[in-house]
Amino acid sequence: MSLESVFSLPEMVEVWQETLNWQPTNDQQNQLQKLYELVIEANHYVNLTRITEASEFWEKHLWDSLRGVAPKQHFIDSLHPGASVIDIGTGAGFPGLPISIIFPNSQVTLLDSTRKKINFIDSVLTDLPLINAKTIVGRVEEIGQESKHRENYDLAVIRAVGSVSACAEYSLPLVKKGGLAVIYRGSWTKEENQSLENAVYHLGGEVELIDEFTTPLSNSIRHCLYLRKVKHTPVSFPRPVGIPTQKPL
Ligand code: SAM
């Protein structure tokens, strides 16, 4: 295999069309390609991801990030022009960076507690360039209690950050009344429904949809949980750093 093909993302025009009823423009495809190259390059000195092969990166980072905000083959209304979005525990920028590339009229905040990862994302924002995204280094339990962030976002996305009840406690306080939190999961069992319903109820939300699907290349199972914010979240949430994981709701 040539070096070029190793580092060239597949276009997957038909798969995008079939699964999301959408296709990236040439500019967007170029930006996704550049994002891939920047992740691969930085991965030599910061531990960002173990997913480096082009088609796997396409499926598990790019497609997966966007599929979460496109249940039922349509991008969600919470991504309207001017929407404010926060990606909690963004790591190397997923799902937040693909969202900010595809929705240039949204304002995306990328939050992580690890300075090294945020430094990498800052360099991506300069290199791509992306002007509709900004970063914050911090713990979501603290950010969620700051008035400039609390109930300030139309959409919160969170992937691979903790248990489902911790993810609900991290995300719902940041969402405006009427807005949406999307929790990206791999597997999901019916038994988990009860703890999710319970956590969401305490946080002023409602479970709007649990969407089960398979990824298009490796047929892996995924679930996305869509939580609608229907009431203000009590001020006691999120609880102090560490408590949401130590004492799940
Ligand atoms: N969301 C990315 C993805 O799916 O590729 C990264 C997932 S990584 C497994 C979890 C990330 O969440 C790490 O980068 C970690 O630093 C961050 N994180 C964990 N707990 C956090 C907290 N309480 N506040 C902010 N970031 C947190």
TrEMBL record:
Function, in words: Specifically methylates the N7 position of a guanine in 16S rRNA.
PANTHER family the UniProt entry points to: S-ADENOSYL-L-METHIONINE-DEPENDENT METHYLTRANSFERASES SUPERFAMILY PROTEIN
GO cellular component: cytosol
Protein name: Ribosomal RNA small subunit methyltransferase G
Record carries keyword Transferase: yes
Positions contributing to S-adenosyl-L-methionine binding: G89, F94, D112, S113, T114, V140, E141, R159
EC numbers for this chain: 2.1.1.-
Annotated family: Belongs to the methyltransferase superfamily. RNA methyltransferase RsmG family.
UniProt keyword terms in alphabetical order: Cytoplasm, Methyltransferase, rRNA processing, S-adenosyl-L-methionine, Transferase
Main location: cytoplasm
Domain of life where this protein originates: Bacteria
A Gene Ontology molecular function term of the record: rRNA (guanine-N7-)-methyltransferase activity
Organism the protein comes from: Sphaerospermopsis reniformis
Entry's localization field: Cytoplasm
